[in-house]
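User: I'm curious whether this sequence folds into something compact or stays loose and floppy. Could you predict its structure so I can see for myself?
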Amino acid sequence: MQKQNSKKKGFKSALFIARTAFKAQGPTGVELSGIIAELSGSVIMKDYPELKEEELGEIYLVDGQKAVLSSMSLHAQKYAAKKLATYGVHLLMDTFVEDFDGESVQLSNGKSIDTKNLIWAAGVQAKVFEGFYPDSFGLGKRLKTDPFNKVYFADNIYALGDCALIAGDENYPNGHPQVAQPAIQQAKNLADNLLKKQEVWKAFGYKDKGSLAIIGRNKAVLDFPNQKYAMSGFLSWLIWIFVHIMGLVNFKSKLRALYNWLGYYIYKDQSFRMIIKPNSRKK
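Assistant: Here's the prediction. I'll summarize afterward.
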């Protein structure tokens, strides 16, 4: 087996996984890789001045698809790959992780990477509940439902969000994206249906409001609904911030988040952190 070793000490290699099992996959691996790469060059160097730059290790993004952000537009894919490369992130496309023993990661291409740090961001797999027929579960162990979110082979049981595989939507034959919007829309549609007679129930239809992914400071990508248009850069980054702040529960939370983010943007530092350093103890 060919071995790919990191010569750097300290953190050794930091490995971020974004293996996509199917097209409805979020951008978690890309976002983590970009953000941690930024932290390595700013916050970590401030908090641990005794570390040298070459001791911070390397970041690998391993993805089973042929391109990062495979569920987004071609423009978003190219922009994300370019910006991650400028951060020094190593992109390993069309590659899967086969094993991790705590010391090295074994890859499907026959190589391995020495590391003690592995972050798995390959999406979620629903919990298999007892009492359902085996045929009730589909891709990703999600419960198969009719267009009204009613679980097949069950009475008066409904599944929503990540654990639901809804039939009848031709645009999403492998299930809806496992992100917040489909779950929110399904919940609202089901709640409306339960207040009506079953004869007038409305089948669920996902309304795509677009996709966002942040790569780093001033860097984000935005796909408009149905990927008709795409944009990237500072304006997309501002939109990403606005969307996430508006999604918070109350005005106080929105204001606090905005204040903290502005402080980090200006000073490139976080005011609330726990820093733990080893103490030398005499035996």
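Summary: The domain at 13-123+211-267 is CATH 3.50.50.100 (FAD/NAD(P)-binding domain). The first strand starts at residue 13 and ends at 17.
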